[in-house]
Amino acid sequence: MTWRAMVIGDIHLRTNENTDDTIACLEFAALVARERQVDAVIFGGDIYEASSKPAERAAFGSILHQLAGIPVYGIAGNHDAPQDVAVFNLAPGNLWLETPAIVEAGPVDLLMVPWAQRAFLAASGYAGEAGEQAGSAALAAMLRAMVATRDRPGHPLVVLGHLQVCGALSSSAQPMVGRAIEAALGDLQDLEAAFVALGHVHRPQELAPGVEYIGSLTCHDFGEEAEQKRVGILTVEDDGTASVEWVSVPCRKWYTVEASIDDQGEPEEYVCQGGEVLRGVFSCDLYNANLRYRYTCDESQQHLFDHARIQSEWGGDKCHTLKIVAQVTRADRIRSADVAAAKTVEEKLAAWGRATETPITPAMITKLHELEGETSHVNG
C-alpha cells in the first residue's frame, strides 16, 4: 500500500510585518495537501519563533482546521516553548510530541525526534550530560535502540527529526556550528529508514540520498533571499522505497539593492538576490517584496545617498518593506606637522595635498579664495 505525506519545515510563526506571508504559505500547503489527498501531514518543528501568543496559536489552529480529516504529526523544535505544540493534541487525529517516540502512521512507522534535550537523554538512561560529543553518541544510541525494538520491524520506517546534523550548511553556506547536540549523518543512515525528513536548518539541502532538510516554509531574513522555499510530497511504497516531490511555495520575495558611486560621481544601483544581479527587473517585480537598499561609500560621498530620495523611489507602495543600510568607510585622519605649521588656509591646503598625495589644482585654489571672500563678507 502506498503512503503519501506532506512534509513541512520550520515555520517560525510570529507577529510581525510578515505574518500574512507565513499564513498564506500555510494555507497554500493545506490546499495542496487536500488536492493531493495525502495520508498525513508532518511538521518538522519550530512552529513558533518564541513562546506563542494567543493570536499565533489561533492562526495555526485555523490551518489545522483546514486539514481536518488528515492525520497531522508534529514535533517540537528548539524555538517551541514547552506545551506550545502539545496543545494541538486536543484536535482529533493529531499527534504532537515533545519527546522521541515511534508511532504507527498507517502502513509506515514514523520515528519522531523533537529537538534533542540532554536532560531527557540522561533521564532515559543515556549519557547525554557530558558535553556535545557524548550527547551526540547518546542520541545515536537511543535512536538505534528505538528502531531495533519497534513493534513492526517489517514496516517501512520514516524519520522526522528536528536536528542539527554535522555537515549541514546554513543559509550563508557556512557549516552549522553551535552548542547543540549534533546528529551524525552516518548514524541517521544506519537507521535504514525509507526517508529522513529534517527540520532546524532553514536552507533546503540533501545531505545524502534519502536524508534531506526540508528548509523553512518562508524567508526569515535577507540571508535567505535566494533560497527557493518548498514543501514536500513524500511517497513511500510497501517495499520501503521512497521518493519526494518538492513543491515551491509562493512566499514573499526578498531583494537587495546594491548601490555605490560610479565614475561620474552618481549613485549606481543594481537589484540583486543572493548577491546575483537580476536582469530585467521592473518595479512591479518588487511589489509586495521585502527590500533592502544597501549602499557603500566613503564619508565624503554619503550626502549623495539621500534617504528621503531612496524612500520615495524604492519604498512606499512599491514594496512591502524597505530597509536602508549604510556601509560607510571612515576616512583616515591625516595628521601632518606641515599642515599644523601652515599660516594661511591656502598653505594648509597645499600641505594637506602633499600629505595625502592629492593634486591641488588652480581651480581648487580659486574656489578657496572665493569661499574666503564670502566668509569675510559675512563676518564683516
Q: What is the C-alpha radius of gyration, as a whole number of Å?
A: 29 Å
User: What would the CATH topology of the largest domain be?
Assistant: Purple Acid Phosphatase, chain A, domain 2
Number of helices: 10
Percent of sequence in beta strands: 25-35%
CATH homology-level superfamily of the largest domain: Metallo-dependent phosphatases
Mean pLDDT over all positions? 89
**Domain module count:** 3
Low-pLDDT parts are none
Side by side, the strands of the main sheet go 4-3-2-1-13-14
SSE succession: EHEHEEEEHHEEEHEEEEEEEEHEHEHHH
**Main sheet makeup:** 6 strands, mixed
CATH architecture annotation of the largest domain: 4-Layer Sandwich
CATH class of the largest domain: Alpha Beta
Q: Tell me the total number of β-strands.
A: 19
Please estimate the helix content: 25-40%
Secondary-structure-derived class: alpha/beta
- CA(first)-CA(last) distance: 98 Å
Please provide a brief summary of the model.
With 380 residues, the protein is of the alpha/beta class. The protein has helices spanning 19-35, 54-66, 118-123, 132-148, 185-189, 283-286, 307-314, 337-341, 345-356, 362-379, and strands at 3-8, 40-43, 72-75, 94-97, 101-105, 108-113, 157-162, 164-165, 182-183, 195-199, 205-208, 211-213, 230-236, 242-248, 254-261, 267-273, 276-277, 290-298, 321-329.
